[in-house]
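Thread: Newbie trying to understand structure tokens

Hi all, I'm a second-year student working on a class project, and my supervisor (Dr. K.) asked me to get a predicted structure for one chain before our next meeting. I've only ever worked with sequences, so writing a 3D structure as a token string is new to me. If someone could post the tokens and maybe explain what I'm looking at, I'd be very grateful. Here's the chain:
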Amino acid sequence: MEYEQLQQLLQNAERLHHEKQALLESKKVRIIASGVGRQPKLSIPEQIILTLLYLRHRTTLQLRGIQFGVSESTANDTFNY
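---
Reply by user tm_fold:
Sure, no problem. This is what the structure looks like when written as tokens:
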């Protein structure tokens, strides 16, 4: 994959993520203000890189978690999202 392709992939993924979040927000009945709560441990580009590395090398998600400084379950949740 070339750098330009990766940049395009990151842009598309961020756009899709924001669209999905906006759709979920529009269906919620809020008790507390939006933006309050736990922030994601990995940024969107880091999540995509984690997923691409897992798909390419097929190592355990435990190892991917260690590489990115998150738990195995967070790496698994990121991959499945």
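A couple of things are worth pointing out once you decode it. The CA atoms of residues 1 and 23 lie 31 Å apart. DSSP finds four helices and no strands in the chain. Feel free to ask follow-ups in this thread.
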